[in-house]
Inverse folding.
């Protein structure tokens, strides 16, 4: 396992949830972390929570010019993590085309912009870790576009693992994780959903952001792992 001490890391989608937990874990490992997201206010709060000389840089992953400027500012660095996504769910006949474009722009084109502009600045012993999601491996009504985007990320990362070698490129695929992204659901409904799902999962619990942060650290530090999708879903794709 390689050390993160003194490394430079960029986390896109770092203002809350899995991205924030990952940024904290990376910083605790001794790396400098650049926190990236759309809201500077949210990033500043996240930077205070992370500490360890964390730096906030606002940028929208769906804006290529903003992503190019981001990596111009960061310069040469070691590790990149992308958790950002703008997701939506609906039956296909009711799916709003604008929402479909948001998914593609943030998840697929966003990944393309990031890889394109980060590639020449990544140190050769560094890594890129994308986030996909269980929807690509566990079909669910209403999740067609999310599944499409997540599956595309897996294919994209495997190709980049060859193209950008020896830089390592991997994917973490979370299941249901208790993050602020679920806060739009009424409290009682949300807790009932979590409880019901936990009883069905082999792990008998849903995920926590720290579970995903641990997985990212493994992929960053293990220099013999590339082109891999690491499922951290409590066995959700099996049920």
């Amino acid at each position: 396992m390689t050390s993160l001490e003194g490394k430079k890391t960029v986390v896109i989608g770092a203002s809350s949830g899995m991205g924030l937990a990952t940024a904290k874990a990376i910083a605790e490992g001794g790396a400098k972390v650049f926190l990236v997201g759309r809201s500077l206010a949210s990033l500043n709060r996240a930077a205070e929570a992370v500490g360890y000389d964390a730096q906030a840089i606002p940028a929208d992953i769906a804006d290529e010019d903003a992503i190019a400027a981001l990596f111009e500012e960061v310069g040469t660095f070691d590790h990149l993590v992308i958790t950002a996504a703008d997701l939506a769910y609906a039956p296909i006949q009711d799916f709003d085309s604008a929402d479909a474009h948001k998914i593609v722009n943030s998840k697929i084109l966003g990944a393309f912009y990031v890889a394109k502009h980060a590639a020449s600045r990544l140190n050769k012993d560094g890594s890129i870790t994308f986030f996909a999601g269980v929807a690509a491996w566990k079909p669910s009504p209403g999740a067609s576009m999310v599944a499409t985007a997540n599956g595309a990320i897996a294919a994209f990362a495997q190709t980049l693992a060859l193209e950008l070698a020896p830089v390592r490129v991997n994917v973490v695929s979370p299941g249901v994780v208790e993050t602020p992204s679920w806060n739009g659901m009424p409290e009682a409904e949300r807790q009932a959903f979590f409880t019901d799902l936990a009883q069905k999962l082999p792990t008998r619990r849903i995920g926590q952001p720290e579970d995903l942060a641990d997985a990212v650290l493994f992929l960053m530090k293990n220099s013999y792992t590339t082109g891999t999708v690491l499922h951290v879903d409590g066995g959700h794709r099996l049920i």
In short: The mean pLDDT is 96. The chain has one domain: 8-230. The chain has seven helices and seven strands.
